[in-house]
Amino acid sequence: MPVLDGAATVAAAVAAALDQDYGGELEVVVAQGPSRDGTAGVLARLAADPRVRLIANPSGGTAAGLNAAIAASHGLVIARCDAQSRFPRHYLRRAVEILAETGADNVGGTQAAEGTSFLSRAVAIAQTTFLGVGDARYRTGGKPGAVDTVYLGVFRRAALERVGGFDEGQVRNQDYELNWRLRQSGGTVYFHPDLAVAYAPRAALLSLWRQYWEYGTWKRVMLRKHPRSLRWRQLAAPGLVAGLIWSVAMLFTPWPWAAAPVPAAYLGALLAAAGFETARRRDPAALALPLVLPTMHLAWGLGFMVGRARRPGGAPA
Fold it and tell me: Rounded mean pLDDT of 115-133?
């Protein structure tokens, strides 16, 4: 578990990781970054449990922390955990069973976003709709089977060693990039709905914008390395941004009416999604989708198109 500024959530994440019905040995290795909140104090208390070990992650980078934690661990099976996630009690047991049943290198499930405030519930809804995330099964769920990526993941140690672990130059999209290399090496990444993990989504539009800007920026970096990994859903947000820019440009031509179709169609889709999800989920937070979805789409698309990616330490990617 890599942790940076996770004082509000890391105790629950560690507690859930320890409270498993798995019958074998279990250790939790926390890679501690240079946090600016009270994370260090929380972790010091958690480390009183002999199953919890703290190691230093001076850069604070997620991939570097994961690699350091893996190197310090002893198990033949490695489960990735985030400070904002909470494993269900059956998670490790079922993951080990599915690894054995399928022969996969990595198994995982859905990122089951669960909001608590009005806005975070709206974000959680947006992150589990087709309009928000396309056909990403780790977001929307589905039947068991081989996929391109999963949320977090439970890995065979030998598979991680075979491909050299996580790419420490990849600030975001580390999971997708690693899973691409696993699949290219002949391995299987396997999705199973039994492995859903609760996740606390962003609770403010500005932090959501920053998150998705980084997602888009680092997806471009990842595609530069592995262009054949491209999926159609990854072009949807840049395509929307390009369409809106084209619409604005058409206002200054002899055909200003041509500016209307793209924004009108997008607005219609947003309103339809808000109405449908409000009725389906019986949660008025879905009415905020016309604010949340454009935040996700435009930030991701603009980040993909013009974002400047920098590695830990400030070097350009």
Answer: 92
Phi, psi (5° rounding) for residue 35?
-70, 150
| Nearest to 93, CA basis, from 103, 114, 79 | 79
**Contacts for 97 with CB less than 8 Å, ≥ 6 apart:** none
Q: How far is CA 309 from the centre of its chain?
A: 18
Supply the pLDDT for residue 208.
96
Nearest by Cα to 171 from 215, 209, 139 = 215
CA-based nearest residue to 127, from 314, 310, 289: 289
Residue with tokens 């920053």, as numbered in its chain: 210
Helices marked H in 141-199 — which ranges?
157-163, 174-184
Cβ(292)–Cβ(299) under 8 Å? Answer: no
What is d(CA 94, CA 89) in angstroms, rounded to the nearest whole number? 10
* Dihedral (Cα; 36, 42, 44, 49), 10-degree rounding: -150
Q: How far apart are the first and last CA of the chain?
A: 24
Q: How many helices (H) and strands (E) does the chain have?
A: 13, 11
Burial class (CB in 10 A: 0-12, 13-18, 19+), 217: buried
Is it the case that residue 313 has pLDDT exceeding 90? no
Question: What pLDDT shows up at residue 49?
Answer: 95
**Residue 315 predicted with pLDDT over 90:** no
| Residue 145 bridge partners (DSSP) | 191
Q: pTM to 2 decimals?
A: 0.86
- pLDDT over threshold 70, residue 154: yes
Mean pLDDT of the chain: 93
β 151-156/85-86 pair status: unpaired
Provide the residue type at 106 as one letter: N
